[in-house]
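Lecture notes, unit on protein representations.

Consider one protein chain, 295 amino acids long.
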Amino acid sequence: MKVVSIINYKGGVGKTTITTNLASDLTKRGKRVLVIDLDPQTNLTFSFLKVEEWKKSYENEKTIKYWFDSIIDGTKPVPSFKDLIVKKSDLDIICSHLGLIDVDIELAAGLSAGTERQHKNNFIKTYSYIKNELNDIKEDYDVVLIDCPPNFSIVTKNALLASDYFIVPAKMDYLSTLGINQLRKHVASLVKQYNEYCKDTGNNTVNPEMLGVVATMISVRGGQPIEVQKYYLDALKRSNISLFDSMIRENKSIYSSAPESGTPVVLMSHKFGTYAEVINELKELTTEFIRKAGV
């Protein structure tokens, strides 16, 4: 089982779009896929579920927030991820919740320092919740995709430390690419500290690798990104940041219709024209992801 987090500090870069379509195409290709929505905006959740359906059947006891709340409250037993999973066609999802934004404050209390050894044990425990839970279902899935919020919170760090890889979707503009190097540094620092504490406490170390940046919302002219976007692509390459060859063009009409129709773009049926080109780009991304991640 490969666990992959999708993250960027900047919102509005196509993070959820990449997660939704990658998961759907992997499922269509016969992979066993679980998606976990860690973003309080719940966009991934509502890409697969109607809001009314979520409120009626899943809001109270079938979200990642409910799971974290159970840990914080000391509920016995804490529900497992298997208890949270919602099946949608051939794909499994763990839903998010708007209230997830408040969980970090409660989780931080578990990091309160006692002795140095207690602090290290609390650190490992707090940041390993998702990692430990995924370990219990590793035989059930080929791929787990985690849609992270645009921050470096305790919840986000849980996802990254549980991951084999992480992907950074980014628009090719100044603000969207600005934080990528900083994100790499933050992940490296977190992993270094976590692994040092693991060695001191006898726990297993981790090594999440950056699988690459996916260029999103590309404006295409003559089959190539426009010049200003090429500039940022070249700048990332000069910074030794790995880029996916597959790039996803901007097309507001096809992407805006997907949540309402309940059909991810990659599963739509268009054989000709711009829509077909968009769908092919998403399929090419899946193919490249399978190769890079070894799925």
